[in-house]
Amino acid sequence: MMDNPAVQTEPQRTSSRFWRAFVHSRAVQRVFVWTAKVLFRLRVRNMERALPPGPYIFASNHASHYDLFLALAAFAGVTGQLPVPVVWSGVFDIPVIGNILRAMTAVAVRHGRGDELDRAATVQEMISLVRAGHCLVMACEGIRNDALGLFEQGAAFTSLATGVPVVPVSLRGAQGLFSDLSGPRRFWGNVEIVLHPPLDPAEFEAAGGSQVEVATRFTQAIRDQVASELDYPVADVVARTGNKPVS
User: Fold this and answer.
1) Quick check: bond before 85 cis, omega within 30?
2) Which residues have CB under 8 Å from 188's CB, separation 6+?
3) For range 195-208, the mean pLDDT
4) Is residue 164 within 8 Å of 158, Cβ to Cβ?
5) What Å distances lie between residue 206 and 107, 130, 197, 216, 220, CA to CA?
6) What is the DSSP letter of 104?
7) Mean pLDDT, to the nearest integer, of 36-45?
8) Residue 213: what are its φ and ψ, rounded to 5°?
9) Confidence band (pLDDT; 50, 70, 90) for 240?
């Protein structure tokens, strides 16, 4: 695996020398991936759909609170580099986990929908990281749901701005492991990550329409691919069309 340099765009994401050395240790990374494979029988189907050099934007469902760790372990093995996770900002406040995220490249996202400037800044950070050659991994619903919910449009906007394809990802076997933040139900499982064919942003742009309309169609296509291989219910939702374009 290749190390990602730390990106520190906010004060709360500064990290100590110890945690930076810990996170970027090749030995620690190998143990992390091995542990995920042993405890959760973690496997990736269709690895050939996201071979190096990339980069790629991995867009998945949010089945459990293990998802971040499962995705990091899986995609490090697929692409040869530790991907950049897009995570809820509150995760940075969790002991140990927050220290690890501060020491690696990670994008913080707030759940509130009221601050459009903050949302646009987050997408711009994602765009900058992809243009720098990093892979992104994100759970497009933003929050964990018992049925596949509405997808946010950050993956689509980032792909349209950079030309980097989105790889839809179906995470299977994780939903029943850790669905309540009070604590995991199990520390082991049988998890499969399914990669779908990469979606080229140029194909959605070619169909015409405003940037928001293109992003809406693109996001729906991502969600449809993810839904096609899920092992839990898919909610009947209407695609969001109110997001503002990214300049």
Assistant:
1) no
2) 39, 40
3) 96
4) yes
5) 30, 22, 19, 14, 16
6) S
7) 95
8) -65, -40
9) low
Structure tokens at 174: 């994780």
Q: Which of 111, 105, 99 is nearest to 76 (CA)?
A: 105
Give the integer Cα–Cα distance in Å for 187 and 183. 10
- Hey, which bits of 46-188 come out as E strands? 57-60, 84-88, 107-109, 136-139, 166-172
197: amino acid identity, one letter:
P
Measured between alpha carbons, how far is residue 133 from residues 32, 96, 215 in Å? 23, 27, 22
Residue 240 domain-assigned?
no
Domains in the chain, number: 1
pLDDT above 70 coverage of the chain, percent: 88
Is residue 118 assigned to a domain?
A: yes
Question: Positive or negative, the Cα torsion across 92, 166, 158, 105?
Answer: positive
**Parent domain of 85:** 13-176+190-227
* Between 125 and 54, the higher pLDDT residue: 125
Q: What gap in Å lies between CA 182 and CA 154, rounded to an integer?
A: 28
- Report field, pTM of the whole predicted structure over 0.85: yes
- Write out pLDDT tens, residues 76-116: 888 877 899 999 888 888 888 888 888 888 998 886 655 67
